[in-house]
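User: Let's play a game. I give you a shape written as tokens, and you guess the letters that built it. Ready? Here's round one.
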């Protein structure tokens, strides 16, 4: 083995030259020193250490350096540094030091925020990294795809991403889409046969699978020949654009351009102040310094960091609530969601199935027992089944278990399914009916398989019978199956199926569906030599012998009902989409409150009859779509979007990917979803639970609200500073704030309080409002009104304090008053900024303890500065007694008190209006 490992590294380059597709399978396995049972874990680990992770090199890893340097990129900061240096040269060393210190502190804070935000976002994208099923030491296990090494035997099935380059050992109707590599969008059919021609283009190496391509149907097994940068994809990795989290969201882009407008606007005002000051005969250099500082104060530089932080914090919170965001831009759309289209099975229901009823040869059986375990029995007319029933039950059990890829295992006292839960339930009932999976596998070896997908709604497994003939076992949706049956199994043997039989079976099917049971039909067919060698679905799945029906119960998720109710309150419509029978779907939908008693469903077949226009008209009323195939989902999404809805759509199967891409918010299921669906999705729900989607919507709304309140807080502060300075220059008074003071206020308030707002808790009322319209601007009329009023109020109290100081004491004392008041007023105002509607005394203070903490510390710090003789030189103030500071604090509370009282009155009035039935505008 040591030799293997040693040679492996050397082979790294050598394997590049091996034409894997032209080697015999034995040769491939020998070259890779592995058997078909896979590597053992020790060997795999050793290889991992040598070859490294199966990852493409990141194009742009996070570099702390760059982030730090970026903090100095702003032109304002550069001007500020230059200004600081100039004042140093001119002899004002204190100013120089103070300015440079503040610039540095600012950069450190900015770096810290940005670095953390980037790190948490990068961590998130890792959480949705693809996984692979690998056979190691004979056991199939699911591992992160990045842990694959050359020699690993990988299992593939429809919906998988091919995790590395591999040579196929086995393939059953395996089709791959290789457009990522070859540009060819049609699926390529794969096989395991050695190809003689050494020099084949990638697209023709049909016995190979390649990293970055996807399995569109069928299943296969391949031995990994290259990983990471050694794969074909790795060779062209520079050309591949990672769907990254880095991109800026539409909101971020809009805020950026908004920010640019603000920069120019504030610079305009600053220039005005400068010119006016000159006219007033103020000293040019002092005026220049003041203007630069004012410009720094006026521009909300903290905004991008705060927005990133709001997104990062929100997205992290979502992940704690089981929703992993894959594209940041979806956060914004989440808050706008007006329709959620959810799969029934596994999302609205628990997805844990137990067969409750069987119907075989005209007889109905009840089945007892819970879960997937073997405990329970089949009962007939209230009594345990007897010898008369042994034969039909066994016949049924053979199909249920013969056409079945699931396993059930006992884990910690609970029976769990590995594979499809539907099939797990069939295994369990097969056992209760007297069948044995082991016996079937032993005596009737599997010959071929035509996999299940949501389009076909059926699965076929062909087995070799003891008499040497092949028999196809088929389970599937009863209506689909009945179309293909011509005979029926009865206790007296097999006979042709009559119309009466069909009607009876259909009636039984809907009776079971009405009890919310998911119904599967079972059939088989003995294949003779007229069946073509290809064993295609059309050739095999016809002329079937119908055996029976199995009705399984899949309870609605208890939390889904509450989540549906929350959606209703939040103005969000919930639509159920399912491949299941209409009756089953409707029963479950009513139980969950998605459909009312008079609501009807729309089936896939009916949908096919509707034109896009008619579907668009009907879409707002339909709450349940049943017996739909994945292709219908995209039409439903389009119809809803055409009506102006913002649509979230869930999906799990490989064919759901287009619908997820088409939706505003494509949601993949973390547990039951295929890798392809996850990669196509904007968001992955780790527990497959509908309630988690609703939680994500709530978080999406919360993030938007946090960005809005932070923006408002920052802008109101800037408005206050700008107005105070402008008014004084206009009036010909000495400047109320010196550069260091302005910069300090800016640093303290733009920093921590703004960030605490960006990470604020969600308002409990958030989910009682209607979805935010897509056209709504983050800065609407009300936003500007509040911002201006707040800014002017802050400026007024500071001005009052300043003028009082001027008239009673010196210029320096007056400045100290203005400095203190402005700082206090802005800090206190942060409490009110948390909510636009509810006054502070109606807020949950414990929900954001960070804010009072940060404000408290800043207040204490400011108190300390104001009274400290030692620090007064640095801030160019006159130290004052603590009592004065206290008085300033009281004056500073005026804006907060006024604004909050106004909110209180507004809320009262709205409450009264509501009671009187007058709608709020
Ligand atoms: P959904 O997930 O919305 O319930 P599916 O597309 O998974 O819908 O299933 C549609 C129908 O296909 C089911 O109602 C059932 O009759 C049939 N079916 C589902 N799973 C299997 C399976 N593993 N084998 C055979 N038939 C199945
Ligand atoms: Mg399903």
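Assistant: Ready! My guess for every position:
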């Amino acid at each position: 083995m040591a030799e293997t490992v040693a040679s492996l590294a050397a082979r790294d380059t050598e394997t590049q030259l091996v034409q894997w597709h032209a080697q015999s399978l034995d040769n491939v396995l020998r070259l890779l020193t592995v058997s078909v049972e896979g590597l053992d874990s020790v060997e795999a680990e050793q290889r991992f250490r040598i070859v490294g992770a199966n990852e493409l090199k990141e194009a742009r890893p996070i570099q702390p350096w760059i982030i730090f340097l970026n903090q100095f990129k702003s032109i304002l900061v550069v001007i500020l540094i230059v200004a600081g240096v100039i004042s140093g040269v001119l002899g004002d060393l204190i100013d120089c030091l103070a300015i440079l210190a503040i610039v540095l502190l600012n950069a450190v804070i900015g770096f810290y925020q940005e670095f953390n935000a980037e790190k948490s976002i990068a961590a998130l994208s890792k959480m949705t990294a693809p996984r692979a099923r690998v056979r190691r030491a004979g056991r199939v296990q699911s591992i992160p795809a990045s842990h694959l090494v050359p020699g690993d035997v990988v299992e593939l099935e429809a919906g998988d991403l091919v995790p590395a380059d591999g040579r196929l050992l086995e393939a059953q109707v395996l089709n791959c889409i290789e457009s990522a590599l070859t540009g060819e969008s049609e699926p390529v059919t794969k096989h395991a046969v050695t190809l003689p021609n050494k020099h084949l283009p990638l697209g023709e190496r049909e016995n190979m699978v390649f990293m970055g391509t996807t399995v569109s149907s069928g299943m296969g097994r391949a031995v990994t020949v290259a990983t990471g940068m050694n794969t074909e994809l790795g060779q062209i990795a520079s050309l591949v654009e990672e769907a990254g989290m880095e991109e800026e969201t539409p909101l971020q882009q809009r805020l950026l351009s908004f920010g640019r407008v603000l920069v120019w606007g504030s610079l305009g005002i600053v220039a005005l102040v400068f010119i006016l000051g000159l006219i007033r005969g103020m000293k040019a250099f002092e005026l220049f310094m003041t203007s630069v500082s004012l410009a720094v104060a006026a521009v909300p530089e903290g905004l991008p960091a705060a927005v990133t932080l709001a997104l990062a914090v929100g997205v992290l919170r979502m992940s704690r609530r089981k929703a992993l965001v894959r594209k940041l831009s979806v956060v914004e759309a989440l808050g706008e969601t007006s329709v959620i289209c959810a799969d029934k099975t596994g999302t609205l229901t628990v997805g844990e199935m137990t067969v409750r009823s069987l119907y075989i040869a005209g007889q109905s059986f009840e089945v007892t027992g819970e879960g997937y375990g073997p405990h329970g029995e089949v009962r007939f007319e209230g009594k345990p089944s007897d010898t008369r029933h042994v034969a039909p039950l066994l016949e049924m059990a053979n199909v249920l278990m013969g056409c079945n890829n699931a396993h059930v295992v006992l884990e910690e006292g609970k029976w769990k399914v590995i594979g499809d839960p539907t099939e797990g339930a069939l295994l369990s009932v097969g056992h209760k009916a007297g069948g044995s999976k082991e016996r079937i596998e032993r005596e009737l070896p599997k010959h071929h398989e035509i996999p299940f997908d949501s389009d076909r709604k059926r699965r076929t497994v062909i087995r070799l019978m003891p008499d040497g003939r092949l028999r196809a076992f088929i389970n599937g949706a009863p209506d689909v199956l009945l179309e293909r049956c011509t005979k029926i199994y009865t206790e007296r043997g097999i006979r042709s199926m009559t119309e009466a039989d069909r009607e009876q079976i259909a009636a039984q099917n809907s009776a079971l569906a009405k009890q919310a049971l998911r119904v599967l039909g079972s059939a088989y067919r003995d294949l003779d030599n007229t069946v073509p060698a290809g064993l295609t679905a059309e050739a095999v799945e016809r002329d079937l012998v119908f055996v029976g029906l199995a009705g399984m119960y899949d309870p609605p998720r208890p939390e889904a009902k509450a989540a549906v109710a929350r959606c209703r309150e939040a103005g969000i419509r919930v639509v159920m989409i399912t491949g299941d029978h209409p009756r089953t779907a409707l029963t479950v939908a009513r139980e969950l409150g998605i459909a009312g008693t008079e609501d009807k469903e729309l089936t896939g077949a009916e949908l096919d009859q509707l034109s896009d226009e008619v579907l668009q008209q009907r879409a707002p009323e339909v709450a349940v779509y049943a017996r739909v195939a994945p292709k219908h989902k995209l039409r439903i999404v389009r119809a809803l979007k055409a009506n102006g809805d913002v649509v979230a759509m869930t999906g799990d199967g490989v064919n759901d990917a287009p619908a997820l891409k088409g939706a505003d918010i494509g949601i993949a299921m973390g547990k039951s979803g295929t890798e392809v669906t996850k990669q196509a999705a904007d968001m992955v729900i780790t527990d497959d639970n509908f309630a988690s989607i609703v939680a994500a919507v709530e978080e999406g709304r919360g993030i938007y609200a946090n960005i809005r309140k932070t923006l408002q807080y920052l802008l109101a502060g800037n408005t206050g500073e700008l107005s105070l300075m402008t008014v004084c220059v206009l009036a010909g008074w000495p400047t109320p704030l010196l550069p260091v003071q302005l910069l300090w206020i800016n640093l303290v308030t733009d920093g921590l309080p703004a960030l605490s707002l960006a990470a604020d808790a969600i308002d409990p009322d958030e989910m009682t409002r209607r979805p935010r319209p897509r056209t709504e601007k983050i800065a609407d009329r009300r936003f500007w009104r509040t911002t201006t009023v707040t800014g002017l109020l802050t400026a007024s109290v500071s001005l009052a304090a300043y003028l009082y100081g001027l008239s009673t004491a010196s210029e320096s004392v007056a400045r100290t008053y203005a400095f203190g008041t402005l700082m206090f007023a802005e800090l206190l105002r942060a409490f009110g900024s948390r909510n636009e509607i509810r006054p502070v005394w109606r807020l949950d203070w414990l929900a954001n303890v960070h804010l009072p903490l940060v404000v408290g510390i800043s207040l204490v710090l400011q108190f300390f500065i104001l009274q400290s003789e030692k620090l007064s030189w640095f801030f160019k103030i006159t130290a004052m007694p603590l009592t004065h500071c206290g008085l300033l604090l009281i004056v500073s509370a005026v804006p907060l008190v006024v604004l909050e009282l106004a909110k209180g009155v507004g809320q009262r009035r709205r409450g009264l209006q509501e009671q009187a039935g007058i709608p709020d505008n």
